[in-house]
């Protein structure tokens, strides 16, 4: 639910700011808050090789993923299609995790992944009609998929046991620095601060960046990447539920049927150990 709300906050945030600018502000606020907490608690900041590894993970998981999602939606790709592409994350991670992390994919997990993907496609079928003018947006979204997939494997392999406060602070501030360059050069840091923008920005920074990614890292420390990534099959359907509740978008029978199918696939893939 936390991760799915990011598509809503992103869609609303793009009404007030350009995509890389919105991403940069989100990362800077979240990272600055965590850094302040770390200093108050007198936590030791990462150094040396660990610092470099955390910075790489931050660029991939935070910077590349979320700025690409924003850029794709800003170029006109419907939010349902955006959620569908990112929901391919379990399959992408599975393909990488087997040779890199030596994780084993059982038949039950493969069946769960297939059911989950089928549920996703069924639920957002009506949103798959994307015109030629949206090819650039689709390219950004697949770049975001690549970012979170490779970043998850990197995080699992090289950043195990990182401190949740200092580690996330480093990753977020690195992502802010990385997105600042295109925000300045490509967009001129285009943002309009209004009373309606602040709640959206703070939700994206505090809930989506800190809580959402923090939950992802916590799960990765205690479970396999295939089990954790399978939860992302629920993102498009939960996003559709939020859109129906907050944006008054209709939930048809295909969406509801896809929700049931993807939920079953997710439970199957996440409960069977590889």
Keyword list:
0% strand, 12 helices, mainly alpha
Please sum up the structure shown.
The chain is mostly helical and 274 residues long. The protein contains 12 helices and no strands. The longest helix has 27 residues, at 48-74.
What is the fold's blueprint, element by element?
Layout: H1 2-13, H2 19-40, H3 48-74, H4 79-86, H5 89-100, H6 107-123, H7 135-158, H8 166-185, H9 197-222, H10 225-229, H11 235-246, H12 253-271
Number of helices: 12
The general outline is globular
% residues in beta strands: under 5%
Based on CA atoms alone, the radius of gyration comes out at: 18 Å
What does this structure look like?
- By secondary structure, the chain is an all-alpha fold.
- The chain is built from twelve helices and no strands.
- It has helices spanning 2-13, 19-40, 48-74, 79-86, 89-100, 107-123, 135-158, 166-185, 197-222, 225-229, 235-246, 253-271.
- Helix 2 (19-40) packs antiparallel against helix 8 and helix 2 packs across helix 9.
């Amino acid at each position: 639910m936390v991760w799915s709300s990011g598509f809503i906050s992103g869609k609303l945030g793009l009404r007030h700011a350009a995509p890389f600018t919105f991403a940069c502000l989100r990362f800077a606020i979240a990272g600055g808050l965590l850094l302040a907490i770390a200093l108050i608690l007198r936590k030791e900041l990462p150094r040396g090789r660990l610092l470099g590894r955390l910075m790489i993970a931050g660029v991939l998981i935070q910077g590349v993923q979320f700025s690409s999602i924003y850029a794709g939606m800003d170029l006109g790709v419907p939010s349902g299609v955006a959620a569908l592409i990112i929901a391919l994350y379990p399959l992408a991670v599975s393909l990488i995790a087997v040779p890199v992390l030596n994780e084993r994919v059982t038949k039950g997990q493969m069946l769960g992944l297939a059911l989950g993907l089928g549920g996703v496609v069924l639920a957002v079928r009506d949103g798959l009609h994307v015109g030629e003018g949206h090819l650039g947006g689709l390219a950004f979204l697949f770049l975001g998929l690549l970012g979170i997939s490779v970043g998850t494997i990197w995080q699992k392999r090289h950043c195990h046991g990182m401190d949740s406060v200092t580690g996330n602070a480093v990753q977020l501030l690195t992502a802010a620095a990385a997105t600042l360059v295109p925000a300045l050069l490509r967009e001129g840091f285009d943002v309009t601060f209004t009373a309606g923008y602040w709640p959206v920005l703070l939700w994206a920074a505090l809930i989506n960046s800190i809580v959402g990614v923090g939950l992802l890292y916590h799960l990765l420390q205690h479970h396999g990447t295939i089990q954790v990534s399978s939860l992302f099959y629920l993102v498009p359907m939960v996003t559709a539920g939020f859109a129906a509740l907050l944006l008054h978008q209709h939930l048809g029978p295909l969406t509801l049927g896809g929700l049931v199918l993807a939920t079953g696939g997710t439970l199957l893939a996440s409960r069977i150990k590889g």
